[in-house]
Amino acid sequence: MSEQQTGPKGGFAHTLASRVEEWSSSMEQSDPDFFPKSAKGQSPKILWIGCADSRIPESTILGLKPGEVFVHRNIANIIQPTDINSLSVIEFAVAHLKVEHILVCGHTSCGGVNAALANNRLGLLDVWLQPMRQLRMDHTDELEKMDNQSEKTHRLSQYNILRGLEVLRMNPTVIDAMTERNLQLHGVIYHVENGKLEVVESTEDEHRLKKRLAAFTTKQAA
Questions:
Q1: In terms of domains, do 102 and 181 share one?
Q2: 105 is known to lie in a ligand binding site
């Protein structure tokens, strides 16, 4: 490749390569088996579905190493039942990697949530944020009673996580894994202001569970 394509020697990419070499050397010293094990494949127990925000590096805040978390991230951690990108990640993680937990993670001060609470035109993002705006519409009365913007953002983030968990529970592959091997779903919010992780409680009574399973459980045709 030409120097124009790769950048000058000593440029940004070369700086990154040097940093990675320092990190890999440190890893080899602290855990000599880490890279040989990584080269053999991955077996993460967690699928993390989070926001693309640069302040929430999942492995770092969970105190885990590369290879321990399978990841899908997008603007405002929105889970849509027709999004082929997230569906592909969920299918691979659940059906093939056999993850034991799915974490749907939002965060405070989320730009996507704040955008859905505002009315500025954002182009393509307006289409992506439609599910969030619908949640805003559905909970207008509650949100309008809140004077504090951060409180509104936090509450809409909670609703977005609950909706994401609901979409996951309607996914046939997830349903099978929950039934057959006790796959567990969790909702959390990361607080960027203090580094704490808040659990968003999500319950489903027996009556709703039966209705959901009757409507969304599928079987292979005979």
A1: yes
A2: no
